[in-house]
Design goal:
single chain, alpha/beta, Trna Endonuclease, Chain: A, domain 1, five-stranded mixed sheet
Length: about 280
Amino acid sequence: MYDNLCKYLIEQFPEDFATWLLGETIALAELSPKELSNEPIRADSLILLQGPDIILHVEFQTRPDPKMGQRMADYFLRVHRKFPNKRMHQVVVYLQKTNSPLVKENKFKAGKMQHGFNVVRLWEKPIEDFLESPGLLPLALLSQTSDSVEQAEEAQQLEVLRRVAQRIELIPDQETRANLNAATAVFAGLKLKPELVFRILRSKTMEESAVYQEILRQGEQRGIEKGLREGRQKGRQEGRIGILRQIIPFLQGFGVPIEPLLKFVGITLAELNLEEEQAEKD
């Protein structure tokens, strides 16, 4: 889910990310990984954008990957082979705070070969970096919090979420607001309980947003993939139920009607074991 949300943000707001990651405002267009090689390439978290003389390669990660350096070197060579006259800027953005030394690694060595790349740990970046650009707003809650001992961490995060919500409400376009609200809620879920997020973020147009539609698509796809792996229809149904158990409370918190979704997938609230929770909320 986080991979696709990050892809959505950077593809919809390329100039915001160019200014943040490159330090310059330039026009960037999406570059498909398929253009680099006929060989298989891992594209689930790979984001490539190109400008007149530059390629921006960004990877968003929720957890450390011991093979990240090797992947970055591999992608660099593929891009260089295809676009030898363009400079390449590579960034790994880690979303969740961790003490793993892997998130500090920014080089890959193999024999005499050495390749370097950039690393951004969001929890070390000041909040102000994310509050002035619409495309970066959903990431603000994952940035650096105050060191003040007088304010609990949860209270600080709620205050940041309020500031983000206020800025999103100033955006004129309704669809953009709905998408950014949904993306912000998902990322906020990495730091806060859903009920706290729902108190601040509300959107009646959530079901019309691209982010909402992507959540539905992922739920369907996960069910299909599990069914294929197990070779029986039960896998598909179990996959749907599993993802819906996560999604339904999220949607209910925003006041989004869930009946059309349940009817579409052919599952009842009772089958999700969420009937009692719904009754309590009613």
